[in-house]
Design goal:
β1 (2-9) and β2 form a beta hairpin. The chain is α+β, with helices and mostly antiparallel strands and 114 residues long. The chain is built from two helices and three strands; from the N terminus they run βββαα. The chain has two domains: 2-44, no CATH class; 49-111. The longest helix is centred in the last third of the chain and has 33 residues, at 79-111. A three-stranded mixed β-sheet has the order 2-1-3, with no helix packed on it. It binds zinc ion. Residues 9, 11, 13, 47-48, 50-51 line the site of zinc ion (ZN).
Length: 114
């Protein structure tokens, strides 16, 4: 079990950082034994890339919903624009769902031996 830093993001996700120290199990020169343990936790003052991508898409989605609401108040003449926006929202929903699944998979993967 070799020791690594752990980088913890404000969203609660984390990733492995720098290698720090070998354990006393056998290993070839320059290699770690494959089992990772946390040497120290380094706080990162931002969200992980995945959560940032999810946030960006959610902001875009909220803006799109706002547009649709505005057009709907204006009546029927914006129907084509509304339909187009609804397509964009559906697309963003699918992308956000995919990113969330990826995040869950990653959390589960890290839960084992990393
Ligand atoms: Zn995250």
């Amino acid at each position: 079990m070799c020791f690594f830093d752990q980088h913890r993001f404000v969203c609660g996700d984390w990733k492995w950082g720098h290698f720090r120290q070998h354990c006393n199990r056998e290993y070839r020169i320059g290699e770690t034994c494959g089992m990772k343990l946390i040497m120290q936790t380094v706080p990162v003052g931002q969200k992980c890339k995945l959560c940032e991508r999810i946030d960006t898409k959610q902001r875009r989605r909220a803006a799109e919903v706002e547009r649709v609401n505005r057009w709907q108040r204006e009546g029927a003449r914006f129907k084509a624009s509304i339909d187009k926006s609804m397509d964009i929202i559906r697309g963003l929903d699918a992308e956000i769902y995919e990113l969330s699944c990826e995040r869950n998979r990653r959390l589960q993967g890290i839960g084992s031996h990393g």
